[in-house]
């Protein structure tokens, strides 16, 4: 029973850590693909002000593109997407709504964003000469009462670089264009589905009245999230002379990073509680076993066994028991982890009436357990069981004669 309790504790720890790491990996992957990517390059000051007038010149965009084509960068970067952002008003015959305009290159955006994969009606934008297409979220489509093929009018203020507006106020000119709904997407993020629209980059540049080649930011998607600091440092060095800021996803989406850190802390506390409960159970079992063998230890001392040898015997028994427990825990924990890694944990089973609004990402959670996590878990459980065995061993070593030989 003691071995089973300790084995279950290890199995729970392995499964918990696997689901924790897998959930965080999926959250980061979805978060950066709905946001600015693993690494984002934007004009200096944009992160603090979100001013649409802060644009990257075509020269800098070209420098970034050329640098990312070098062999060292190509093996790290999966996708690159320049984006032009602005605020506008989208109107249909039934209603109108404020929107966030995102001008993109469709082929590049497919490699970086999840929006092209979340189309529920129609098709995503294509790299052709048709610049009148627009894709929008399902919440926005319901509000405007539009469907595939519907005509909408997009109105926005022309973007002008700071201090370049004419004295006649030409920087405040409003521009509008007629668009046709190409596709409707659903991400589960209300802020995206009710506000974001995507159009082709040349169409957005023409509408906003800016020079060809200028964009708001360049989003990078990497093969591995852990390479974000490395790629960001390389880009900062390459663009040191230019007024730009290169941010990793932790810097560009600080709220997501803080949520993950809080979740990490909470899960470590819960794992600590599990281990503490298992440890107390093991201590109780081993201690009772030692107290019940008091007569046996008295006989051992009577025939010349020293206190230190008694303590070593108890610790040795505990280590043997711990080894059996670790094997049981590894077999059970890795079996469950393998199932969750291949088939996933379907969170929809927990919500019969539908998923909660806060759950905006993939409801099937896949476990991701690294070798370092397994070694760390086994080491923690082994150390805990070893330390716990010291007190019972100390009690056994202090067995005193002749009281221990009394038979009631």
How many helical stretches?
14
N/C terminus separation: 28 Å
Strand share of the residues?
15-25%
The 3D shape can be described as elongated
Task: Estimate nothing, just give the exact number of structural domains.
Answer: 2
Going across the biggest sheet, name each strand in turn.
2-3-8-5-7-6
Query: Main sheet, how many strands, which sense, barrel?
Result: 6 strands, mixed, barrel
What is the residue-averaged pLDDT? 85
Low-confidence stretches: 161-170, 354-360
Helix/strand-derived class?
A: alpha+beta
Number of strands: 12
Which radius of gyration do the C-alpha atoms yield?
Answer: 31 Å
Order of helices and strands: HEHHHEEHEEHEEHEHEHEHHHHEEH
> Helix proportion of residues, in percent?
40-55%
């Amino acid at each position: 029973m003691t071995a089973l309790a300790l084995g279950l504790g290890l199995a729970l720890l392995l499964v918990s850590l696997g689901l924790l790491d897998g959930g965080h990996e999926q959250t980061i992957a979805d978060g950066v693909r709905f946001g600015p990517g693993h690494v984002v390059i934007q004009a200096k000051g944009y992160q603090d002000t979100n001013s649409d007038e802060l644009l990257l010149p075509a020269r800098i965009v070209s420098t970034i593109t050329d640098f990312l084509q070098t062999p060292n960068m190509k093996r790290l970067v999966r996708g690159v997407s320049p984006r032009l952002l602005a605020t506008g008003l989208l109107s249909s015959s039934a209603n109108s709504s404020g929107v966030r305009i995102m001008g993109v290159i469709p082929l590049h955006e497919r490699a970086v964003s999840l929006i092209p994969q979340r189309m529920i009606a129609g098709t995503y934008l294509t790299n052709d000469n048709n610049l009148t297409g627009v894709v929008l979220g399902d919440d926005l489509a319901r509000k405007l009462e539009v469907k595939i093929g519907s005509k909408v009018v997009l109105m926005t203020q022309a973007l002008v670089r700071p201090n370049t507006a004419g004295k006649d106020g030409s920087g405040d000119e409003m521009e509008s264009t007629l668009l046709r709904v190409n596709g409707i997407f659903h991400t589960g993020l209300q802020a995206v589905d009710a506000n974001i629209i995507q159009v082709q980059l040349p169409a957005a540049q023409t509408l906003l009245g800016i020079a060809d080649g200028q964009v708001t930011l360049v989003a990078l998607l990497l093969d591995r999230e852990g390479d974000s600091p490395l790629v960001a440092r390389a880009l900062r060095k390459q663009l040191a002379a230019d007024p730009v800021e290169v941010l990793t996803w932790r810097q560009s989406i600080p709220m997501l990073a803080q949520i993950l850190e809080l979740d990490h802390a909470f899960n470590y506390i819960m794992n600590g509680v599990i281990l503490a409960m298992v440890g107390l159970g093991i201590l109780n079992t081993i201690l009772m076993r030692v107290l019940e063998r008091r007569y046996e230890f008295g006989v051992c001392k009577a025939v010349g066994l020293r206190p230190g040898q008694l303590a070593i015997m108890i610790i040795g028994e505990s280590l043997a028991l711990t080894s059996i427990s670790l094997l049981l825990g590894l077999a059970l924990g890795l079996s469950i982890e393998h199932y969750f890694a291949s088939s996933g944990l379907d969170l929809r089973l927990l919500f019969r009436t539908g998923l909660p609004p806060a759950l905006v990402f993939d409801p099937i959670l896949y476990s991701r357990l690294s070798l370092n996590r397994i070694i760390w878990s086994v080491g923690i459980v082994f150390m805990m069981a070893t330390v716990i065995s010291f007190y019972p061993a100390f009690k056994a070593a202090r067995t005193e004669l002749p009281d221990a030989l009394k038979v009631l």
